[in-house]
Structure formats: C-alpha cells, structure tokens
Amino acid sequence: MTRVLVLNGPNLRRLGVREPEVYGSATFEDLTALCRDAGRRLGLQVDVRQTDDEAEMIRWAHEAADERLPVVLNPAAFTHYSYALRDALAQLKAPLVEVHISNPAAREEFRHTSVVAGVATGTIAGFGMTSYVLALRAVAELLAGDGTA
Ligand code: DQA
Questions:
Q1: 134 neighbors 127 (Cβ within 8 angstroms)
Q2: Hey, is 44 helix, strand or coil?
Q3: 14 lines ligand 1 (CB under 6 A)
Q4: Sheet harboring 71-74: ordered strands across?
Q5: Cβ(76) to ligand 1 under 6 A?
C-alpha cells in the first residue's frame, strides 16, 4: 500500500473547540479516523500528523521528499507566510495537495495569499473535513495515473 502523509499545521489539534462556526464541531481525532477510513477505501496507508512547530513541519516535508511520499497538507497559518515551508515542499517528488477546511479566499485579506499553492499539485478548500477526503481521492487518482485527476 502506498503511504501518504496527511500533515496539519498550527492549531488544528484544537478542532472541535476552535472557532466551531468556522471549522465545525468534529475533533482532530475525528479527522484522523476520517482520513484513515478514506485511505483504506482508496488503498492508501494514511499517516496523520499535526504540529504547531514550523521546524517539525519542515522536517516532515524533508522526510516526504527523501522517501518520495505523497502529501496532503493543511499548512494552517503557515499557508500565508512560511517561505521556509514552501522551499521544503518544493523538494517533494510525489503529489502535494494543499487542503483547507474553510475557504480562505472568502475570509480575511491576509488569508487570500498562499505561499504554498505555487509548489502544490493542486488545492482543495472550503468543504470542511471533506476537503481531506477529496484530497486523498486526488492523490489516489494521480498515483493511478488514469487521467481522471
Ligand atoms: C485553514 C485556514 C487558514 O487560514 C487558518 O490559518 C487555519 C486553517 C483551514 O483549514 O481552513 O489555521 O488552513
């Protein structure tokens, strides 16, 4: 089974209690279970992680680059300013799907910029936790190379 890293940036472990009107009531544990279940159905072995630490996130990007692993990434606030993370992600050898629970384009001005988007294969935003399921599906289709993704 192909391994996929599902990486989550700052504050995402607080899903369920953090601004539920924006991010919903499901918890990070719910998100982990959803991703693992979607992965099982798609034939992907999903490794879900979260960090509030930019250095740790960069180390995970290096690991994905070295092991040629596909990545589904919610960079959270790093999206909007972390050139260091972007430079790490530029080294990936397999698909990178940027995901967001909310639709940053419909929110505050500072969220309209993603410094990550330019090195991602594509971006899925605004579908709540379903954004992750759609991203995993995109990864599966890209890996299958059947031209539908
Ligand atoms: C987010 C959107 C970002 O702007 C924000 O900083 C987050 C979560 C989302 O999933 O909607 O932390 O990435």
A1: yes
A2: strand
A3: no
A4: 44-50, 2-8, 71-74, 96-100, 122-125
A5: yes
Query: What is the residue whose two structure tokens read 């430079």?
Result: 87
Atom 13 of ligand 1, nearest CA residue: 76
Ligand 1 atom showing the smallest separation from residue 100 Cα? 10
Task: Give the residue, by CA position, lying nearest to ligand 1 atom 6.
Answer: 77
- Bridge partner residues of 48 (DSSP): 6
Which residue, chain included where needed, has tokens 């539908």? 148
Over the stretch 84-111, which tens digit does the pLDDT of each residue have? 999 999 999 999 999 999 999 999 999 9
Positions marked catalytic: 23, 100
| 2-144: CATH class | alpha beta
**Atom in ligand 1 nearest the alpha carbon of residue 75:** 13
- 58: phi then psi, degrees, rounded to nearest 5: -65, -40
